User: Fold these one by one.
Assistant:
Number 1:
Amino acid sequence: MSRQVFLYDPPDRFVAGTVGLPGRRTFFLQATAGPRVTSVALEKTQVAALAERMDELLDEVVRRSGGNAPVPAVPPTGVFDAAPLDTPVEEEFRVGTMALAWDGEEQRMIVEAQALVELEADSEEDLAEAEEKLLQDEENGPPMLRVRLTGAQARAFAKRALDVVNAGRPPCPLCSLPLDPEGHVCPRQNGYRRGA
């Protein structure tokens, strides 16, 4: 079976968003172009890592270009997207591996999210070999979402993604674990239940 690549070059919209209540949210990346919508599920930590690395890569592009790259320092107000995910949200796949790159010729950020794949191997060496072979297989690899963004779109994506991650449950001021609306058992309080 050949690899399915969901390509958006450029997307009309590329955002991170959630479905569900804080504490039970499912995180998604969603790309749209015209009537076509692709949503892929991923973990909260993956969204945070993607946004942070995207900002770092954009800062590095600006630094290396001497400020000449078409990358704004902050997201332009006209590009920022605070709207909810387009519905219905239908998961194409769960993300396993992500990659970021900057195309210097086209002045575009390339985001790739590849489906999670379970590999079985008898040893660590066999597992590493299977992983490398899978990543190099352009024709038969797992499904992939590939999005090409302008510098402004990438900045706006990173800001929204960090806002979405930080919109969850507030942390306990003592142990930093998330507080549920009904409170939580704080290990620093020796199990005392603390309210939100």
Note: DSSP finds three helices and nine strands in the chain.
Number 2:
Amino acid sequence: MPPSARRLAAAAAALFVLPSLVLLAGFGGAVLWDVILAVQFLSAAACAAPLFFPSHDRFRVACAAAGAIIACLWTPLLIIGFAATAISGVLPWVGAYLAIVLAAVAALIGAFQRAKGPGVGRPAVVVGWTAAALAVADWLYVAGPALLA
């Protein structure tokens, strides 16, 4: 199995750790942020699970399971978040979380494809890394001013 598959799964886990550190540093205490923090750590653990499977078949199953777990955890939160935008104007935050979720799933799909073999899944890898870079940039753009204030 190519090492890039493992690196993509690690990147998916890291995408959830970065916002968790930001929330711990500046926004801890509120119940909503604590729930989001718990979901982020669960998502990071799900994305890190494929790293512990040495065979490519089990790695691919773990990647698919991690994607399903992320979808199950984040869909209700994002629906509530989009509903809350009408009330409180938190659209940039919801958009940043949506970017992270989509990037993590794209990275897991890339890892799933790369686990098939050395010459397989290169377009999925490009999409995964590009989405991850854009999600980190979006998160820093949204959370940066709040942390510096």
Note: The two ends are 45 Å apart (CA to CA).
Number 3:
Amino acid sequence: MRKYSNLKSFDILKAEADSRISVHLKPLDLMSHWRRIGILSDFVAYFYGFSFIPNATATPEAMRSSEIVNSISTVFNELLENAAKYSYNDKADIDLELAYRTHCFEMVVINYTNDKSLQTYEVNLKEIFESENLDELYIQKLELNENDPHHSGIGLVMILKDYPIEMEVIVENQGDVSKVTSRVIYFTD
């Protein structure tokens, strides 16, 4: 087992969730129509947005312009894209666990990948979680991406530097396939 993490708030995860959703997908569900990732991300953000916006102001317009709703959608979208992109085939399982607690929103995405995809992903994870300056790393990755469009890691750097989150990624080898568990805690206060 290997872990990449900036997660420090383990105690918050001990509290019982006020609300919980579980979803089971296949990468094919997402890769055949990439817009589905955005639709699912927006649904999750809007569904839980009512927990973050007072009822009196929870109009459709307020939800669309809510910073927290848009941020949750962006962060969740990045997790889903990575799960679909790094799954070992289009029929591999992707499991989503979402939990709302009073001061945070937890997103867990579990997918299965092969050694080839995992190597690329782990190089990026190591670089990101060992970086002392995510702003600088982001600029470096943007410049690299300009010359090599297949280089990845920009999305994870962006969510870690721009949003109130902590994240951990756990990789567990299971023979020819590895299980990747990505956990993000989004702080709502």
Note: Helices lie at 27-31, 35-52, 60-65, 67-86, 115-130, 134-147, 154-162.
Number 4:
Amino acid sequence: MTEYITSFFSLFFSEQNQLITMFFSGLLSSTLLPGNSEIIFTTLASQHIVSNETPYPSLFVLIIVATLGNSLGSLITYAMGLLVPHSKKTDRRYTQWALEKSKKYGILVLLFSWLPIVGDIFCGIAGWLRFNLWQSIILIVIGKLLRYLFLLATLYPVLKYVL
């Protein structure tokens, strides 16, 4: 049984499949489905940092793949927001809060699309409010990139110098 479980997980974390796993985890994490891209990212980044090889090119590629997957998932949520009919009022607390912030600050709220819970709502509301698509893409990508750079910035010193 343990061999089966080990071989199953090695399928996802083998060197050949790491970037594919990261991409789809990021994609699922930024839609309405759970994907835990932070856990996958920190696991894969830790492997690169701890190894004796120079981690910089591979970490750069990992950040780019994670950002692209996560951004694409947010754009799917944006597209779903385009399909939602307009209503006058919502009873959900987080949705109401995100809607108020989106109306107050406009498209700049998409810089916070990386936040848990409300980040996905911001992307959906951006589509619902018909924010400019190209500006939305740019701000979503910047927000997602900052998320993974922050994760790496907190992870790297701990693994390299503390452990």
Note: The mean pLDDT is 83.
